[in-house]
Structure formats: structure tokens, C-alpha cells
Amino acid sequence: MTLKLVLPKGRINTKVLKLLSDCGIELIGDERNYRPKAYGFDLEVKLLKSQNIPSLVELGQHDIGFAGLDWIKERRSEVVILRDLEFDPVKIVTCIPEDWDWQEMQKRKLIVASEYKNVSTDYLNRLGLDYQLLRSYGATEVFPPEDADMVIDNTSTGTTIRANRLKIVDTVMTSSTQFIANAEALEDPTKRQQIDDLLTLMQAVMNGRDRVLLEMNCANDQITSIVELLPAMRYPTVSRLYQEKGFAVKAAVQKSQIKDLLPKLIAAGATDILETPIRKAI
């Protein structure tokens, strides 16, 4: 059975395509092709704007897809989030002109500009503000001060916000790329198995990206101290060297630990240390 997959065009597309490629799934088609051919997995693929994906997956037009959490919340879409991929993290923030007082502003009626109608409405109502919401269609940050008192917009670095002489006064929510599924598709045993298989591949790739394989040798009397230093997915692999003149040790180690770990291993007597990338880890 062919799974219907919808992919986002634009900013988050690059990392999603790289993830699929690392899973062994290649998409063939030029940048103007909204229906690329998939090889390596039984998929029917379509590219759409990220804003439209949650609603279409909810409706069952597509079985699975990738979308930002911000648009899932904005569309109030009832989809199943299978995994937070943590790609392209952004914050949805409240911004006002840099020389305005946020506390004073909350005492009067505000004109608010945002692409996020539902997210903004929920937030503003929660604060109990008196407001009029203007739906923007891009370039939201240029509205203040002439056309709006404040904006609710997404940002990853805050550079555009500062460039337009705005300041962040609150964070509405955080968002990143989610792998999502239609609830009814998950109830179909055949589709569920295919989706689980794809999710396993993704998890293996994500695990592999987070770790490297460390290999090293050590003398017989150093093996205990070396093994005690090594974090591993379960236990390090230990084998005898030729003529039993020491041990060969290898372990899958998180990349973030390497900087502190290598000096300790050398001090404990590890030699011939090799660090190798891991494509997948299960």
C-alpha cells in the first residue's frame, strides 16, 4: 500500500529532505515539481506550503507529513505528532516598539498584527487585553508603530525584530518541525506498519547523528579504567588483541561528550583512538 506523504516547501524543506535521504529515500524532481518521485520507500509525495499541511493531514488527504508546531496549533489541527524532529526551532514572540512601555500599553486598547490569528487570539484573551487583531500576510515586523501597536511573529535569532526597532516582551510559544500522521491512517494495520517502519528509520538516523563510534586499544591492566570511563548505548564492546597483548575497545558515544572524554581516555592509557561517524543507530 502506498503512503501519501506531504512535504513542506520553503525553509524547513532542506533538513526534511536530508533526513529522508539519510533514511535511504530519494526524491527526484526539479524545484518546480510539486510531485517528486520517491525511491526507496512506497510513497506518493506532494509538496505544499507548511501552513496548509496540518489541515490536509487531519482531513486524510495525506497519511503523513511534516509541519511546524506553530501551524499545527494555528490551524487547530487534530493530528497525531509522531516525533518532534527539533528542526528549525523558532519562538512565537510578542514585540513592541523598542522605546514603548509594555506595562502601560496593557492598560489601553491595542492594535495587534500577526499571521497567527488563532494563536494570537488565544494568547491575547489569556492576558485579558483589549485589542483589535489585524491579519498580516508577511513582513509583520514593519507594522509598528504607524499601523499597529504590537506584533506577534516568529523569530529564530531576533535579528529582523531588532532591525525594525522592536523589542521582545513575551514568548507565546516555541515551535519546531514535527512528523505528523492522520489518526485514521494509524488505525489501518498496513499503513501503521509502514509508518512505524519509516519512524524506525528516522529514529535510527537521528540516533546516529547524535553519536560517533570511538575505537581504541589499551594494555591488559588498563581495561577496567577505560571501560568505566566509556558511556555507551549498552556496554562497550571489548575484544582481545593479537597474542593477547591488550584489548580493543569500541563504544557509541554522544558527540557532546567527546571533548571532555578524549583527554580522560588518553590519561587512562587508551591508544590508537579512532572516531568514526555513525549513519544509523538502533
From TrEMBL:
This is ATP phosphoribosyltransferase. Pathway: Amino-acid biosynthesis; L-histidine biosynthesis; L-histidine from 5-phospho-alpha-D-ribose 1-diphosphate: step 1/9. It is found in: Cytoplasm. It comes from the Bacteria. Residues 49-203 form the ATP phosphoribosyltransferase catalytic domain. Its EC number is 2.4.2.17. GO terms for molecular function: ATP binding; ATP phosphoribosyltransferase activity; magnesium ion binding. Catalyzes the condensation of ATP and 5-phosphoribose 1-diphosphate to form N'-(5'-phosphoribosyl)-ATP (PR-ATP). Has a crucial role in the pathway because the rate of histidine biosynthesis seems to be controlled primarily by regulation of HisG enzymatic activity. InterPro entries: ATP_PRibTrfase_cat, ATP_PRibTrfase_HisG, HisG_C, N-reg_PII-like_a/b, N-reg_PII/ATP_PRibTrfase_C. It comes from Aliikangiella coralliicola. Keywords: Amino-acid biosynthesis, ATP-binding, Cytoplasm, Glycosyltransferase, Histidine biosynthesis, Magnesium, Metal-binding, Nucleotide-binding, Transferase. GO terms for cellular component: cytoplasm. It holds the Pfam family HisG_C.
